[in-house]
């Protein structure tokens, strides 16, 4: 089971939120609680101890706990795609600064001008200040390799018959799904995953499949 974190101010503004550690909004907090209700309705047996994992980033950790999973294990492999030079900026801002119509799936962070690299402090609407780091970023292939590592990490649990929940972010969960299906990671761009929605990956007649999506 894959659960995307709830709403943040940047998920609403369209700013690329890779490793910047921003919190959920009040709406996002309620979305996380509601997602927990839907998951318990869909999986009344719940998840056994040691079978819930969350990205190290604050928004995912908050979502896991608000959804009712008090002590998720931290799994670095499902941290969000490192957008590098696009971090904290919208696609329009990135395109204007770089002089071409940039697309994260097609071009990746490292196609952007190094002039966009830097560190600054962003003040959120509620007044909280968060540090932002825009470095070179990682390629789609590097993010996919991390996702494969995360799958390998939980496979022993799956083989033993346990349900596993991963609480993370839109892009990395979509990329992870492509790796579950053993297809090119660019396929992930075709998968829409909304805030605080969950998806189910499983095995059907020997094949890794998508059982449910964006529920």
TrEMBL record:
Pfam families per record: His_Phos_1
Region (Disordered): 1-20
Record GO terms (molecular function): phosphatase activity
Listed InterPro entries: His_Pase_superF_clade-1, His_PPase_superfam, PGM_Phosphatase
Biased composition (Polar residues): 8-20
Site entry: Transition state stabilizer: 169
Gene3D superfamilies reported in the protein's UniProt record: Phosphoglycerate mutase-like
Binding site for substrate: 17-18, 59, 80-83
Active site: 5, 80
Superkingdom as given in the UniProt entry: Bacteria
UniProt-listed PANTHER family: BROAD-SPECIFICITY PHOSPHATASE YOR283W-RELATED, SEDOHEPTULOSE 1,7-BISPHOSPHATASE
Protein name: Histidine phosphatase family protein
Provenance organism: Bifidobacterium scaligerum
């Amino acid at each position: 089971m894959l659960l995307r974190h709830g709403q943040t101010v940047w998920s609403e503004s369209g700013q690329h939120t890779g490793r910047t550690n921003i919190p959920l909004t009040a709406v996002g907090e309620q979305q996380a609680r509601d997602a927990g209700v839907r998951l318990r309705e869909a999986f009344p047996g719940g998840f056994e101890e040691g079978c819930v994992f969350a990205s190290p980033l604050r928004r995912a950790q908050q979502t896991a706990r608000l959804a009712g999973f008090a002590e998720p294990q931290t799994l670095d492999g499902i941290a969000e795609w490192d957008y590098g030079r696009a971090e904290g900026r919208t696609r329009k801002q990135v395109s204007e600064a770089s002089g071409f119509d940039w697309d994260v799936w097609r071009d990746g962070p490292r196609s952007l001008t190094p002039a966009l690299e830097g560190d600054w402090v962003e003040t959120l609407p509620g007044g909280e200040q968060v540090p932002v780091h825009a470095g070179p970023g990682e390629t789609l292939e590097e993010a996919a390799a991390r996702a494969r590592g995360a799958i390998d990490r939980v496979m022993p649990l799956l083989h033993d018959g346990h349900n596993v929940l991963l609480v993370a972010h839109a892009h990395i969960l979509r990329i992870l799904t492509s790796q579950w299906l053993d297809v090119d990671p660019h396929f992930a761009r075709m998968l829409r995953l909304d805030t605080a929605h969950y998806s189910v990956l499983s095995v059907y007649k020997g094949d890794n499949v998508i059982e449910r999506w964006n529920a």
